[in-house]
Amino acid sequence: MHFDPNYHETFLLYPAVFRSVIAIGAGLDLDQAYVRLADWSGPIGSYEYQMLIAALRDPGLFGDEAPSAAAMYMAALQQAQARFAARDCHVPTREDILSGLFRGALADSLLHVNDQVESTTYKTGRSSRIYAFVLDLTLRGRETRTGGDFALLLDTSPHPHQSRFLPICLQAKRTRAVAPARAVDLRRATPKLKNADQEQVAPSDGTHQLDALKETRKLFPAAYLIYDNSDEVNFQQPVLPIVKDINHLDKHESATLKACLDTSVVDLAFYVRHLLADDQEHVNGEDELLRVLEHLSRGQVDHLVTLTTNADFPLRYAILRDKLVAKGVQWPDGDLLDLQSVRLRPNGPPDVKKAFETENAFAEAFAARTPCP
Q: Which of 35, 133, 157, 253 qualifies as a FRET site for 260, CA 20 to 30 Å off?
């Protein structure tokens, strides 16, 4: 029997992800397959498991109406995390490079999702397209405080002139957690910390990142994003990146700086879908959004990735940027980078007429070649 390798392998390695996916899918009534398994007791039958895998392949993009932004975001993240795991996690790779590769996988998946919903757009006359923009936050000096590698900003505004966003701060870790010690060490090499006057401050025991993420979680979601990657071995079948929310760390995990991956973990796409459904996790209004951006400016977040269905978002961002600068916030100059712009291709064959009209050393060598007998 063939099962989708992405979620299947993840469920085998992290059974807690299976439980979380079922709970979120049933709680949001995404499909009857989740509801059917929510109160299941005993072994899972093959038929029920196949129905679940089928539901995981259908994030709700097709129908008589244009898909919601939440459905499109989830579909893009599901495809991105699958591409990323299958393509980029096999060999030992640094966390910052893995995060960059994940952004590349997200750009690829957005093109695919936008193509998938194009027919729906034609039927309804409504715009259904995701735009993705990236901002490099390292292009200015600032103190390191928040402890996250990148942040997602998902535009859930009901109208282009309203501001409603879901910000998520993600601290990247990599591990292959195996039983019985199925945990990830939250420590990372402690940087040489300096204050605003560039004076050396007391060394940290490694808790500063966790403490900073806990402070961030008081404002908006913050979590550890765990890549299936290790220095010790090459993986033939890497699993999906999984998430452990800061609020789900117990006292023992915080004290030992080791996050247990047998409880309250979930894949990235379902984590985001869960947050999208919680109104309390969103920020409403421009003032709240500015506070989020100002907080991110003071931290270790390297990149800000924004997903939106508003094609005019760069114009709104320019206004936000100017207001941040006016407040004295250290914020990068320049415009947003369109994550998809470098991947757009014209349709049809290339125009090669000029190439055949100019000199070419390889063509000349081929023409002068003596044919084989």
A: 35
Which tens digit of pLDDT belongs to each residue from 95-152?
999 999 999 999 999 998 998 887 665 555 555 789 999 999 887 654 444 445 899 9
Contact 168, 216 (CB under 8 A): no
Burial track 260-280 (b if 16+ CB lie within 10 A, e otherwise): bbeebbbbbbbbbbbbbeeee
- Identify which of 41-45, 62-66, 154-158, 249-253 has the greatest average pLDDT: 154-158
Question: 342: which DSSP letter?
Answer: G
Q: Which residues pair with 43 in a beta bridge?
A: none
For residue 17, the one-letter residue type is V
Q: What span, in angstroms and rounded, lies between the C-alpha atoms of 318 and 325?
A: 11
Q: Give the CA distances from residue 27 to residues 33, 39, 301, in Å, rounded to whole numbers and listed in that order.
A: 12, 12, 31
Determine the straight-line distance between the first and last CA of the chain, rounded to whole angstroms: 53
Instruction: Give the C-alpha separation, 129 to 113, whole Å.
Output: 8
What is the arithmetic mean of pLDDT over 207-213?
85
| 3-state SS class at 1 | coil
Helix (H, G, I), strand (E, B) or coil at 40: coil
321 with 133: CB under 8 angstroms?
no
Nearest to 148 by CA among 48, 254, 245, 57: 245
- Residue 81: helix, strand or coil by DSSP? helix
As a whole number of angstroms, the distance between CA 259 and CA 271 comes to: 17
Task: Classify residue 340 by its DSSP letter.
Answer: T
Which of these, 254, 245, 237, 306, lies nearest to 89 by C-alpha position? Answer: 237
pLDDT for 25 beyond 60? yes
Residue 125: per-residue pLDDT:
53
Residue 141: half-sphere exposure toward Cβ, Cα within 13 Å? 5
> What pLDDT digit, counting tens, does each position of 36-85 carry?
999 887 788 888 898 998 888 777 666 666 788 999 999 999 999 999 99
pLDDT of residue 203: 44
Instruction: Determine which helix (DSSP H) or strand (DSSP E) holds 292, and give its type and residue range.
Output: helix 286-297
DSSP states of 141-195 as a string? Answer: -----S--SEEEEEE--SSTTS-EEEEEEEEEEEE---SSS-EEE---PPP--B-
Of 122, 131, 129, 130, nearest to 64 (Cα)? 122
